[in-house]
Every structure is written in C-alpha cells, then in structure tokens.
Design goal:
The protein has one domain: LmbE-like (Rossmann fold), CATH 3.40.50. The N terminus and C terminus are likely disordered. Helix content is 41%, strand content 13%. With 274 residues, it is of the alpha/beta class.
Length: 274
Amino acid sequence: MNGSTRRTFLKDAGVGLAALSIGSSALQAGVMPGRPANGNSETEGRLANVMAIAAHPGDAFFAMGAPVALATHQGGKGSLLSLSLGESGSSTIPPEQYGEEQREAARKAATSIGAEALFLAYPDGEIPVNDEAKFAVCDFIRRYKPEVIVTHWRGSWHKDHQACYDIVQDAIFYAALPAIARKHPPHSVATLYFDDNWEDAAGFVPDTYLDITPVFEHWMDACAMFPMWRGETGFRYNDFYASMAVARGCVSNFNKAVALMSSPEQRVRHVRSL
C-alpha cells in the first residue's frame, strides 16, 4: 500500500458507521476514520447522521445514497437534499411533469431506505452560487444536524455540480458560526466527503472505501424508483453504479463498496495534528 495515500478500509458495516460519525476530536487527535486510536474507536456506539447534498435527485440517490442507506440501516439518521428537481433531464417529458416525477421518486426512494428527501427549487441547469442558496443549505444543515455530509466534487463538467460544491463549502462554514443568527442554532459538521460520480471525475482521488454490502440491494431498489435509472435518458446509471460497487469492492476487499474522497482541508488538519 502506498503510504502517501490515506486509504480507509472499513472492515464491516459497524465500523463503517463509526467512521462516518467520526468527530472533530478524533481529527484533532490525528485519528483516521476507520483507524481507531489504540484499538478503540472514539465514536464506537454513536449513531451516524448522514446528509447527501446534490444538484439533482438522481445524483443524491445514485452517487450519494449508499452511505445514507448504511447509516439508517445501522439505526442512524439520513437525509438527501436536492438543490433542483432535475426537471430538464428528459427530452420527451415536459420539464414541469418530469420534475414532479423526480420529486415523487425521491420521496419514495428516501422512505424505502428510512431517510428523508429534502428539496430546494432552483431551476435545473441554473443553480445560482449566491448567499441566498448558501444560507438555504446552511438552514438545512442546522435543522438536521448531520455529522457527515456527502456532496459533489468540484472536478465536474456539469455546471450545477460545480455550483453545488461551492454552495456546500460556504453553507458548512455559515452553519457553524454562532455569530450568524438563523432560525436554528449553529451546528458544526464533523466530516465532509465527496462522492464517486461519473460526471465529477476530474481530480477525484478516493481515500475512503465504505462497505455497503448489507444495504446494496436495498439501495439499488431505491434507485430503481427513478425514471432514468435504466438508461431512459441515455446513460445506464444502473449498470454504472452497480459495476462500480463491485469494482470498488475489489479494491477494498469487500463484496460491495463505494469510494469517497475526504475534504482536502480535513487532510491538512490530519497532517498538522500529527
């Protein structure tokens, strides 16, 4: 194993949950998620609270849904926030109708994995990077208090995905500041991960592998509730994400796995705390 690359191999679903709920104290102690200090996890027994924040409902469930499904499977909390409804994703269905189909699919899929689907109503393809959007996401973070957020990596050719990345960075910052008065009290997110998305591949270097074997079929069934899952809009999401779960499982020695990339800023915190 290349020592310069921090690869976290989560040995079972229970350890995976602990890694996802790792707190800031563990980061300051130089503990890598999934690698307990002195053989004991500082977060053992804690229930994870994982929030996916995506540009579109499909991204939230296809690329980010597995960590949420694993958290709820273990008794934790999960939510999936979509900044738009992805209403322009069909060439045959009018945007308004398709957007509502996406919303309904997201609600049903979230219910099936014991999570909650959340929405903002920005136009598909026109998600703005401004303080209104950042504070809207900040309010969701403060309300739902996730310990872990999974979102888009910035290395994307998709304009909305790039916008989501930028919005989430500042939303997390705003959510933690006591000086910013909002409806809900401040909340600090312990860990930020970026998802393994075929549209966000530029510069994506996974360093965390999450064993999703216990929830793989359940997650696939949830994704299948979307009208575009089996290539209806041109891309075979079902084949891609199912195959990636196998491929990432091979690399991490699990049956099925998803790869995540930790925030570069958190990596710096690790180095400075050693």
